[in-house]
Amino acid sequence: MSKVRVNSFSVSLDGYAAGPNQSVQNPLGIRGPELFQWFFSTRTWKYMQGQEGGSSGVDNQWAERGMENIGAWILGRNMFGPVRGPWPDESWKGWWGDEPPYHVPTFVLTHHPRQPLEMKGGTTFHFVTDGIDAALQRARDAAGDKDVRIGGGTATIQQYLRARRIDELHLAVRPLLLGSGENLFAGLDLPALGYRCTEHAPTDSALHILLKKET
Amino acid sequence: MSKVRVNSFSVSLDGYAAGPNQSVQNPLGIRGPELFQWFFSTRTWKYMQGQEGGSSGVDNQWAERGMENIGAWILGRNMFGPVRGPWPDESWKGWWGDEPPYHVPTFVLTHHPRQPLEMKGGTTFHFVTDGIDAALQRARDAAGDKDVRIGGGTATIQQYLRARRIDELHLAVRPLLLGSGENLFAGLDLPALGYRCTEHAPTDSALHILLKKET
Q1: Which of A9, A161, A174, B119 is the most exposed place for a label (fewest CB within 10 A)?
Q2: 8 Å CB contact of B175 and A15
Q3: Which residue of chain B comes nearest to A173, CA vs CA?
Q4: pLDDT tens digits for A165-175?
């Protein structure tokens, strides 16, 4: 059965999934990249970058698991790029260059319509203006038997969690403090929404956590 | 040099240090005791309870470290007991029976004066009505060369963190969600207050974290 998943979502001890002052220069906010140090060292990440090497231990197992069996992605608009308001033109094509790391249909939540954008390597960005459930339906249709992965950012994941649309969520809790930015847990009562921790695996770089929705 | 410390302070993934609905029956709130499972299994805890056995690994090392070299404790009133407002009488003597686990002078923050309360085993509760700095000064004087440990609860630790009075804080982050209750991180920007994570040790039961104030 096809699932709706979040994977490799990194948060600080104090719950921040991005640092403050996100910008073109700092897409993850100030100090945001520190959240992903566990990931950047893995073989999975290196492979995604066309590089060799990288770690193959527990961190990599979680990273790898996150990339398996995905038929479609959903991204919030701020994760797609820094442009706000109506699209001034078609020039912004995401943070990832000509060949984004998705390789499947990828649905971008936005209030402003835009034509689909076909990239190299199988990624096509579709811009969805009629809300999270419409985006999810289109992603499910595109994914077929495979899973839908919600990439982020924080506000998008929070919306899908509140609507109880996410089946499982892998968090990587990092041993650092950010203090401000985008807080995953703020205003969310996850147990009340039916989520509980069903798996955990500590490594030297992160505490990996699997949250599942009870049916 | 004498330090002001917090130790073995357990928080959920979503930052809660106590569950909701604290009461005489549930001093740690609903599901609060799950936060302390890592601690209840240690030799240090068993010893404090007059029992034998218990684990002696990394969890116990952190628990043990928390009990070393303490010359005085500070507790918030809600950690001392469920009584609110003026003390109706002298009958409430804490949660811990005749012989509390402190064994040194212990300063209780309250707005309502009360005579000192001498218990068995070296614990004397002193009730301090003139604020957190007055309590800290009295605790420092009582502790001499030893450290002052702030026991909690969450609101008390938050106040001392905001005032930058805490030198180091050991958190045990537990792989579970509480969703509501007393949140340690809410409204606190710890890096802005000068705190950073200087040590971390994952075990199967908790991610142990040491936060230190940069001088």
Answers
A1: B119
A2: no
A3: B13
A4: 999 999 999 99
